[in-house]
Specification:
The structure is a homopentamer of 83-residue chains. Chain A has 83 residues and is mostly beta strands. Helix content of chain A is 6%, strand content 46%. Chain A contains one helix and seven strands, in the order E-E-E-E-E-H-E-E. The first copy, chain A, has a five-stranded antiparallel β-sheet with strand order 4-3-1-5-6. The longest helix of chain A is centred in the C-terminal third of the chain and has 5 residues. At the A-B interface, strand 1, strand 2, strand 4 and helix 1 of A face strand 5, helix 1, strand 6 and strand 7 of B. Strand 6 of chain A pairs antiparallel with strand 2 of chain D.
């Protein structure tokens, strides 16, 4: 699962049917690449999150019929280096 | 989901059966890479769109049997930076 | 779907069972990377094609049990810039 | 399957339902890219592991309903150059 | 399908259940990146092979329950430039 930061929200009136009830967040990778993800956990601006991609992205939504290939799976509180 | 811009249309007479009734659009990533996507939302030239890839691309078509791995999922009106 | 050019054919006598009756073509991306694809449309040398990857690659074959993750989905005649 | 090194653990209180009982490890590729994986094998700090991605990542968990796209599949003891 | 060269074998005693009876080979891309693949065809050291990834990787194994996302699909004897 990829590590990304919430960069904003997407406004999008014309979309395919299967995305009806979803919040779309703009995410940024550490290298600056932007992508769009469904957000079922309610991430806040600036949050670091990790994302599920591929078919896992659909199952990560409350409704598994949502048409997404990228979904926020959790908000990272902090991480601990080992050892 | 990736963010891309509509760059043109593809004319393609010889194709596999499962792509029969689909509009094929040429998309360009912000870095300039070109790819081909099925367009069920009717994007216009120059539109910024976001795309579903993998198995989600098939479900994003009105007919889920369409043989695509990249489908336009929505047209981006604008995006709002958080905070 | 990715845009690639037919660069040659692969000769391969030792292969897994699920690839028995398939033509294997060598494809080259615009950046020069080579990969191997199943060719159900009969592309000719030098043709520009677009490819289906992932699970879509299997469904793009006449026999969906073919063990491929990359299949030629169509031959590009030409493309039209929008506007 | 990708080769990565265990770099730490992720603490994450807000997450999607399907990740309830999983250890989340921070992995680092040889090029330094970080990602998050489910760890069913109990890797130790500094271990080199290989990972299953995509739908295989879910099947690699004791419970195949786990919502992951990256799972540690094994710990590398050592590798032998051929010949 | 990607083109890679057999670089060695992986020794790995601690692994997930679904990889029990598989040979794990170390593969190298033309750019030098290493990854781990299941080998059902019996590739030899130095062989150039092509690999199936994603869900196709599982079906390419004699037992489709094997937990792999990369499987050697064939050994390349040689390739012929077109035209």
């Amino acid at each position: 699962m990829e590590i990304m930061q919430v960069a904003g929200s997407i406004v999008c009136t014309q979309r395919v049917g299967g995305l009806d009830h979803c919040n779309l967040r703009l995410l940024r990778t550490p290298k600056g690449k932007l992508s769009v993800a469904v957000d079922p956990v309610g991430a806040s601006p600036g949050n670091w999150v990790f994302t599920a991609s591929g078919s896992a992205a659909r199952f990560a939504c409350p409704n598994p019929d949502v048409l997404t290939d990228l979904t926020i799976a959790g908000i990272i509180d902090f991480w601990e280096p080992d050892g």
